[in-house]
Structure formats: structure tokens, C-alpha cells
């Protein structure tokens, strides 16, 4: 075998390995960049979702409080209406009993 041919062959292989190594490094850098972008996107989406959940929860809580206040107001209105009807009847009945 010719030593020059063997050296040329090794040199060619080393160049291909260096090119492949450079290509792999570029691909790895791109993957790392995409991972960082994905992580940032996930973080941003998570933050937006948390904010949306807070807004939704506040809205639901406000609606429940309003509903509860309306229900309490309706209950008091009902009690007053019942007393408005029953009160005079009780008063008339008591006055009838005490007149005897």
C-alpha cells in the first residue's frame, strides 16, 4: 500500500468528521434555541392562563355574592310581606280577645 494514499484517505475521513461535527454543533445550537423559545412560550401561556383563571374566579365570586345579596333581599321582602298580611290579622285577633 502506498503511504500517501493511506494518509489522504485518513485526511479525507478527518475532514468529513470535522464537517459532521460542525453540522451537529449547529443542529444542537438550533435545538437549544428552540427549547428556550418553547420554554418561554410555555411560561407565557401558563402566566396568561393563571391570569385568566383569576379573572374567571373573581367574576364567578362576584356573581355568587350578588346572587346571595339578592336572595337575602328577597327573603327579607318575603318576611315583610308576610308580616304585612299576618300582622293586622294578629292585631285584630288580639284586640278582639282583649275587648272581651
Sum up the structure in keywords:
100 residues, rod-shaped, mainly alpha, 1 helix
Structural account:
This protein has one helix and no strands. The longest helix is centred in the middle third of the chain and has 97 residues, at 3-99. The model has no long low-confidence stretch (mean pLDDT 87). The protein has one helix spanning 3-99. By secondary structure, it is mainly alpha-helical.
Rg is 42 Å
Low-confidence stretches: none
Q: Which range does the strand content fall in?
A: under 5%
Order of helices and strands: H
Count of β-strands: 0
What overall geometry do the principal axes of the alpha carbons give? rod-shaped
Percent helix range: over 70%
| N-C termini distance | 143 Å
Summarize the structure.
By secondary structure, the chain is mainly alpha-helical. The chain has one helix at 3-99. Helix content is 97%, strand content 0%.
Write the layout of secondary structure elements.
Layout (H helix, E strand, L loop, with lengths): L2 H97 L1
